[in-house]
Amino acid sequence: MPAIYAHYRFGCDVIKNTPHHITALIIEYRSLFDIGLHGPDLLFYYKPLFSNPVNRVGFGIHDKKGRIFFEHAAEVVNNSSHKEPALAYLYGSLCHFALDSMCHPYIEEKSTNDNVSHTQIESSFDLALMQKDSYKPARHTICSYINPTMNSAKLISQFYTSINPKEIFKAQQSFVSYNRFLYTANKLKRGVALTAFKLSGNYNDMKGLLLPKKQTFECIDSTNQLLRLYDFALIQAANLFSEMDLYLSQDKRLSSLFDHTYGAY
User: Which of 71, 121, 176, 230 could serve as a FRET partner for 246 with CA atoms 20 to 30 Å apart?
Assistant: First the structure.
């Protein structure tokens, strides 16, 4: 999962070039599009320090072909009594899939070959994007665009059949609160986060989630490559949007683009 800022920024870039009717819908239901930008990663934040049935659903979706989730998601949209809000969430989810499926094969290869953690690569990429945009985490509240509500949780839960609205709402709240710790420059808060990682028994895997204070030598090459892949993913997202619109309106089969997983394959 290219990290939080990357996914949000990517969604903002995607809608600069979407057809007018899609842009208008997204603007009207922007909050649902924005939470959709984080796809099933949202589920990781339900009691995130330990494995549980909710966050395991998120990990499971990442390992499966995209079409499994998106064919179900299209059915949810077509059967929804709130079709346009549901479609806004679906468009956000497509953005997430476009960036993940484009970047993760490289991230996994880099992590394996160079002994750099997956999370460290992604956090370094986030830092590079923030620096490029002159975005200073100390002066902003990360995830300020996420406003957890039970209404949005009820809608989002329809996309994940085994998860109820209360669990989605809890995941949304945790998404905001945990990322405020992960993206802070405050030494005390960073220390609290590192202590929590140690207590969870997953310190080595999770410490890379903290936004680094500066770029590290071992991630310079990966950041440059991810910037290139980011641009390719923008093209991919446009294709995914077009295909999904045809699938929703004409039941035209989704192409092999949806045979990628969110992960390395």
Answer: 230
Residue from 86, 53, 49, 72 nearest 203 by CA: 49
Dihedral of the CA atoms 80, 82, 85, 87 (nearest 10)? 30
In the chain, where the domains are located: 4-259
Amino acid letter for position 110: K
Nearest to 23 by CA among 87, 75, 83: 87
- Give the tens place of pLDDT for each residue, 73-107: 999 999 999 999 999 999 999 999 999 999 999 99
CB atoms within 10 A of CB 222: 23
Structure tokens given for 71 = 């064919």
The residues pairing with 261 across neighbouring beta strands, listed in sequence order, are: 65
Q: How many CB atoms lie within 10 A of CB 200?
A: 14
